[in-house]
Amino acid sequence: PVSPKRKIIYLAAILLGLIIPFIIIYLRDLLDTKVHTKKDIEELTTIPFLGDIPHSTTKEKIVINAGARSSTAEAFRLIRTNLDFMLPKKANNVGKTIFVTSTTSGEVKFFTSINLAASLSLSGKKVVLVGMDLRAPKITEYLEIEDKKGITNFLTNDSITLDSLKFTIDEIPDLDIIASGAIPPNPAELLMTDKISSIFNELENSYDYVIIDTAPVNLVTDTLL
User: What is the pLDDT of residue 98?
Assistant: First the structure.
C-alpha cells in the first residue's frame, strides 16, 4: 500500500505526544500563582525566610511544650532560633514586638501566634500574647474558655488596667495572655486612639517579647493602622 505511510504517522504521533503535554504543563505552570514550596517565596521576595510550619496530623491546638518532638514543634523552635538572629537588640532592654498576620481568614493565624508565643516562653523569656484581631476574636474560642475582658474593654474604659486583663492557661503557665474582648462596632477607630501607644509602651517595658495576633491584612485596615 502507498497510503497511509506508517512511519510518517508514527513520527507525527510521537511529536504530538511530546508537544501537547509540554504545552499543557507549561500553561499550568504559567497560570499558577499559588505558593507551593519555600523556593517560590525566596524567588519572589527579598524578605528573609524564617521557617515553614508543616501541617499537623494531630488535633492538638498547642503543639509545643518542653517534651514535644513532633515536626511541627521543631518547626516553631527553628523559627524561634531564626528570630533571635534577625531581631535587632533594643536599648534599655525594651521588649520586641512581633505582629502575626495573614492575607485572608482561615490561614491558621492564631495557631501560629499561640505556638510561637509558647516556644518563646519555653526559652525562659517573658512573653505576652495579645489578641488585637478586634473584628473576629479567636483567643477564648480557640482555647475553649469563657469570654474574658480584653483590649476593647481597656480602650473604652479608663478604669480598667492591662494587668487586670492578663490570664494564663495550664498548658503554658509562663505565658501571659490578653484577649481581644467584646467585638466593637468601630474597630478601626478604636485602633487610632492614643491609648494604643500606651498599651505597647507598657508591654514592651514589662516583657521580652510581645506577640500581637492581628487581623488579616487583605481584608481590613486594622493591622496597617
Answer: 92
